[in-house]
Fold this sequence. Notes:
heterodimer, A: mainly alpha, Four Helix Bundle (Hemerythrin (Met), subunit A), B: mainly alpha, Helix Hairpins, 3 helices, 76% helix
Amino acid sequence: MLAFPELFFYLFATIAVLSAVGVVVSSNPVKATLLLVLTFAACAGIWLLLRAEFLAIMLILVYVGAVMVLFLFVVMMLDINLTSLKQRVSSYLPLGVMVMLVIFAELTWVFLSDTPTSVSSDKISSENVGNTLLLGELMFTEHLYSFELAALILLVAMILALVLTLGNFNQTPSKNLDVAKQVRVSSKDRLKIIKMESEDG
Amino acid sequence: MVELIDVLIFSALLLMIGIGGIFLNRKNLIIILLCIELILLAVNTNFIAFAYFLNDLNGQIFVFFILTVAAAEAAIGLAILLLLFRNKGSLAVDDISELKG
Lengths: 201, 101
């Protein structure tokens, strides 16, 4: 009989790995995105078991709630022809499977050969002090400059995304007024007198 | 209780699936972005496992910054994806080969 944390660890790990496989093999991008949301949710459960409560909640709120919803919006806005996405078996299949197996074997070999022994985890969170408080104390003292740098990165990303998507100037000309052009204008440019016959009746 | 090696192998599996997905996928650029998210999730899980088992909170700080950068990367990646789809009308990986010399 498995203990309570182990049982949930294996449950979440199975869900996460299976839905990750689903992300890769699914041919419908909407389904793939939703399966990735499931992977994130299962991983947040594992993070909770590892006492990273603040980050687990942030993964759900920020990542699933904002970033993945952005993905879903974009995927649904793009009018992709679904029949053209049906995967034939790619010619890269042997290479890809080989790379996967080599990476996994190498990582497992390293992990099994030299795994550090675990120690008690009273610094991460304890009965009295929560994980969020400890994380916040560390972040706003020791890592304050990196924190502000992260804000700058987000600002740059936001501006860049706007410039990339709104910046096709030749299709929508800018509405700024060119003063010199307005001053130079004469009555001939604006007014045209045409002679036309008057209609009968 | 769960041992460190269990979490490490779990995150290695996620990393493997993510990298394999980038290799196997030839039809859809969106899946490649999703695979990058998967790889970053595996890395974050690794950091959190080590933070727990080595009793060092700096690992969790690092995960926080990785999440920030990943969000920025997702936003810019999606903007590029949108532009690409507007200009070329398809998202197949094989069509995007203009940088070949």
